[in-house]
Please model this.
Amino acid sequence: MENQIKSFFNMERLVPEKHRVGALPDGREASRTVVNLAVPSIIEMVMMSLIGGIDTIMVGRLGATALAAVALPMQPRMIMMSLFFALNVGITAIVARRKGEGRRDEANLTLRNAIMIVFALSLVVMALGIIFAEPLMRLAGGNTRTPEDAEVLSLSVTYFDFITYSLPIGAVSMCINAALRGVGNTKITMQVNIISNLVNVVFNYLLIGGNLGFPRLGVAGAAIASSIGILAGAIISFVVVMKGSNTYLHLSRKDSWRVDIKTMKGILKIGGNAMIEQLSMRFGFFLYSRILYGLGVVMFAAHNIGMQFLGVTFNFANGTAVAGTSLTGQNLGAKRPDLAMMYGKLTLRLALMISVVVGAIIVLFRYPFANMFIESNAQHADIVIQNAAETLLVIALMQPFQMSSVVIAGCLRGAGDNLYVAAVMAVAVSVIRPIMGYLAVYVFSFDLALTWIFGLSEMVLRMVLFLRRFQSGKWMTIKV
Model:
């Protein structure tokens, strides 16, 4: 056992000799560095998913129609947000690299330019989203073939409209948090997002069901509550960087807020590659969701429960990946690609351990988890719960593949290797997943769980391709 522990903390096993530049740190110290960065991000992102799940649970108490109505806008909204997710990849990577290089002024210049471009673009996207709300919901699968379908469409448009108005505020807040993660301030972003989401839950309670004298707004109340939570998070994010006491990053009205062309080009270069990834990924998710709506409102409600848990498990992986992204970028900036590789593999180890625990919990509690999202006496509740529980088994099975692919992709993004990540995601998520989903639903007529197995099988391919790329070391020479 003692030899196994020593082997686990032997960092030289993680970095081939041909990639070593200097001495490697003690294994326990290196592991502590990864955990200190990863744990706050995991808590932050998982809490966001859990609170989002509470949001869905509260809406689910209104019935399967309301549950389907808040699920329908999910992919159109994520497509809109993909522009900002992509830019945030560039912001995190560049700010991390500048910190590693010891160029604090350049890191702050990057943040200022990022805020300007994100805010301008968010106004355009918001306007388009509001104008085309109903066509987007119809494109996502909404229709008026039955009274139930018509109600879902109407409620989904209302939800989408309210949530879209908060887009500029949320986009800028996300931008600031992306920069803070780049310099390793994951505890601060954790605090910001937990407070934001707790505000969301409080207003959910007040506005969905009309408690403590507030109006009962149902689905619209959920959207308004989310917007209020986003505003709270944005205010806190700005206060943090305006004070700038322990953040490395600092904003002030006295700073130069003129556009810096070189800095803007850097953000757009990495963000542009990430944009290919985000758009292809969101397009794939959109198609997949559209295909799954073909199973009917009841099955789509069960699918939405599965998506909530897939989101939670993704955020375990994504939170862990933040450590890999930040440490990869910082160590490449410090001219230590060997340390970047070492920390990437340490982060992968942590992710695999988490995947085993998360998978086991989902298997053991799949029925109680599914039961939380819909009243047991609601119409079709037994069908929704049974199919959702079976889908949760699939999610548990896929955990090692999902977490490995997300974490290694995060490390590659931290190195600026976004084009490779984008190409893999485009093939896996935009092509393979929708094709497999279509075959499962319309050709083989599989049930929901088997459809999910077909759809998520692309995660195995992603994991293999990302691991091969990372092990090759080609990402070590990319300039940012």
About this structure: The chain is about 80% helix and 0% strand. The longest helix spans residues 297-333. The CA atoms of residues 90 and 271 lie 5 Å apart. The two ends are 43 Å apart (CA to CA).
